[in-house]
Specification:
disordered N terminus, 7 helices, alpha+beta, 8-stranded mixed β-sheet, 3 domains
Length: 438
């Protein structure tokens, strides 16, 4: 195996009281089975105004499933949340984690990121949202600090640490690039790049920069001391063992299938706990996005408008207090500012502070699929993008769904996963088919 992934997660804190503030909402809407939406506008004494959007999701509902997705189906790149929601046929969506804004690596994750079991970024030891699989579904989530690390070991036993995955290479650094990055590493000349096949065998070594990334393999790119290590230990045909790990601060029964790095944590055990993770934006009022585990068993996706006359935004301690009032037992801050976006039924429901919807690196999608008609609509939307499903596979799946032959549709999705159907599209369809069958 090219990479061994070790994942350990932490249990959620004690649940909070189920009491919530007696809020009056300006809008309450039942969006789909297991999914509801609310809007609230208010003043707090002479403070404000504030405008908040709340999406509440019942993870136990048979129709509901969640999916983190990447912009442009890649480890780097940017796309609007509404575009990602439309591309997948999602019921609702919010923006996800932090990302690199400028340059050729724009859209690379600035925190930990695991997608369908593949590490796309090892991050920097900050809080993250974990979607777990121990129940067989993704609708169990936890919040924890995630520390990513990696190493490469040569046949002679000599090893070196990996500094990053799918991001810009710095001086003296060793960075691993995977096919999710795209066709090449985008690096400049001046380092050493070693292309590996899926078993870690060295295919080629060069120093020209922007090395091609082998399908199913990877490229190790080193500069300075890391480049010297590669020169000493990599030879064509030799094997380099790559080891990547995520180590949260404590353990639980959670086996993450997906991790979205963000932060800081806002709520722990029903009480405000705004951890110091050196972001620098917690003491000023900004637009915000959060994910919360409610004491009543639901998930809350919350956006707060800011930097506008209609809504000033909030400091993180203020935001944490509002989440607790909504019933949050655990909560994490996601990317905010101009990135803050909530889409429901194809419509952007918040007021982005840039005056328009910002392109971001990733999103969290919510699906509610409870009948073959809705399943067909999701398939149609996925089939509109040739990167998601090959046309012939989409036609065959549509025929099975129309015939209500969901057993063979599910079998076809699994057999075509990673071939005629992308991993992300297969995840959407597999859970959607299962929600209709249940």
């Amino acid at each position: 195996m090219l990479a061994r992934v070790l994942l350990i997660a932490v249990a959620c804190g004690a649940p909070a009281s189920s009491q919530t503030a007696p809020y009056e909402y300006d809008l309450k809407e039942s969006v789909a089975p297991g999914v509801s939406y609310r809007e609230r506008r208010w003043m707090r004494g002479g403070d404000g105004p504030f405008t908040m959007q709340i999406l509440e999701v019942d993870p136990a509902h048979r129709a509901v499933n969640l999916l983190p997705v990447r912009a442009r189906e890649a480890a780097i790149g940017k796309e609007t949340v509404s575009s990602m929601a439309r591309r997948y046929g999602a019921t609702a969506a919010v923006n996800g984690g932090y990302f690199v804004v400028p340059g050729i690596y724009a859209g690379a994750s600035a925190g930990a990121y695991l997608l369908d079991g593949e590490i796309l970024s090892i991050g920097a030891g900050r809080s993250a949202m974990l979607l777990c699989t121990e129940t067989g579904f993704r609708e169990h989530a936890e919040i924890d600090v995630v520390n990513g690390c990696g190493s490469v070991r040569a046949a002679n036993g000599e090893s070196i640490s990996i500094d990053g995955v799918n991001r810009q290479r710095g001086a003296q650094e060793l960075v691993l690039y995977r096919p999710s990055m795209g066709a090449g590493t985008l690096t400049e000349a001046g380092g050493v790049e070693v292309a590996l096949d899926g078993a870690g065998r060295v295919l080629r070594i060069d120093d020209h920069g922007n090395a091609a990334i082998p399908p199913g393999g990877a490229v190790l790119s080193g500069a300075g001391a890391a480049a010297e290590w590669l020169r000493r230990n990599a030879a064509t045909g030799s094997v380099l063992t790559v080891d990547l790990q995520f180590n949260p601060a404590a353990t639980s029964n959670c086996r993450p299938q997906d991790i979205v790095g963000a932060g800081p944590r806002l709520v722990r055990g029903g009480k405000a706990d705004v951890t110091e993770e050196q972001f620098g934006h917690q003491r000023a009022r900004h637009p915000r996005t959060a994910f919360a585990l409610a004491s009543r068993g639901t998930f809350l996706f919350v956006t707060l408008d800011g930097r506008q006359s209609r809504s000033t935004g909030m400091k993180l301690d203020e935001f944490a207090a509002e989440l607790i009032a909504l019933g949050a037992a655990e909560a994490i801050n996601l990317d905010g500012g101009g990135s803050t976006t909530m889409v429901v039924d194809g419509v952007v429901r918040n007021s982005p502070s840039d005056g328009f919807e910002r392109a971001v690196s990733d999103a969290l999608l919510v699906f509610s699929v409870n009948d073959p008609e809705r399943l067909s609509l999701v398939l149609d939307r996925l089939a509109a993008d040739e990167r998601q499903i090959e046309a012939s596979v989409a036609r065959a799946l549509a025929g099975r769904i129309r015939a209500n032959d969901l057993e063979s549709a599910a079998a076809m999705v699994e057999s075509e996963r990673g071939r005629g159907i992308s991993q992300s599209a297969a995840s959407v369809l597999a859970e959607a088919i299962d929600s209709v069958r249940r």
